[in-house]
Design a protein that fits this description.
alpha+beta, Cytochrome p450, two-stranded antiparallel sheet, 6 helices, globular, binds protoporphyrin IX containing FE, iron, transmembrane, Cytochrome P450, oxidoreductase, monooxygenase
């Protein structure tokens, strides 16, 4: 590999591996402050998981598999505000689709929000409904927050693990209050709070 290719891959890993999960956690903190019932449901799920362990015991793989509701909430937050808006593909053969001709070699851009915010696929698309991810969840290729096919996100399971563990610890210790209600997010290039999402953390009284 050339030096440029190595540098390119390192930058991809830093960007793909850090910014994606950190913006998702930021969105989660905002969402939970705005949806106290969802926060309470998560707290209940995680109090139960923690109480089945020895005091101070680390989460193990079996515990992670029990975390269903929180992952549904994270998935729903990423459906409404996908951390990555889309990616490029190159047509390796001529493609004819829906009356459009895309010659071999053309660059194509697929967009996460086109399906995940389509009201025909997800009714009331901007409404937070974690139950959309229960059982089999959305139909294949309608929720492509992690992409799809052979080039889909390489770090999906790692991202799931780190976000679940981080929120398991945070939610059991604190509730968060937004210091700037309705703070605006812009894509830059990932969803970013304009004023840094200042919050006040209140420890639980137990
Ligand atoms: C919330 C977290 C994350 C989201 C939403 C996300 C999303 C995505 C998306 C949409 C793609 C493009 C997939 C495609 O073209 O079909 C991608 C690719 C990739 N992601 Fe992630 N990602 C996340 C976390 C991570 C983490 C933690 C890592 C590494 C530790 C990672 C590494 C990669 C790599 C290496 C690729 C390129 C895969 C390839 O081209 O073969 N991602 N990710």
């Amino acid at each position: 590999m050339s030096e440029l290719l190595i540098a390119n891959n390192i930058l991809l890993l830093l960007f793909a591996g850090h910014d994606t999960s950190s913006v998702t956690l930021t969105l989660l903190i905002k969402t939970l402050a705005e949806h106290p019932q969802v926060y309470q449901n998560i707290l209940q799920e995680h109090t139960e998981i923690a109480s089945s362990k020895k005091e101070g015991g680390f989460l193990n793989w079996e515990d992670i598999q029990k975390i269903k509701y929180l992952w549904n909430v994270i998935s729903e937050v990423m459906r409404i505000t996908p951390p990555i808006l889309g990616a490029y593909r190159e047509a390796i053969v001529d493609i004819n689709y829906a009356g459009y001709h895309m010659p071999k070699g053309w660059k194509l851009y697929w967009n996460t929000g086109l399906t995940s915010l389509d009201p025909e696929i997800f009714p009331n698309p901007t409404r937070l409904e974690p139950s959309r991810f229960e059982e089999a969840g959305p139909a294949p290729y309608t929720y492509v927050t992690f992409g799809g096919g052979p080039r889909m996100c390489l770090g999906k399971e790692f991202a799931r693990l780190e976000m679940l563990v981080f929120l398991h610890v945070l939610i059991r210790k604190f509730t968060g209050k937004l210091l700037i209600p309705n703070e605006k997010f812009i894509y830059d290039p990932m969803p970013t709070p304009l004023q840094g999402l200042p919050i006040s953390l209140q420890p639980h009284n137990y």
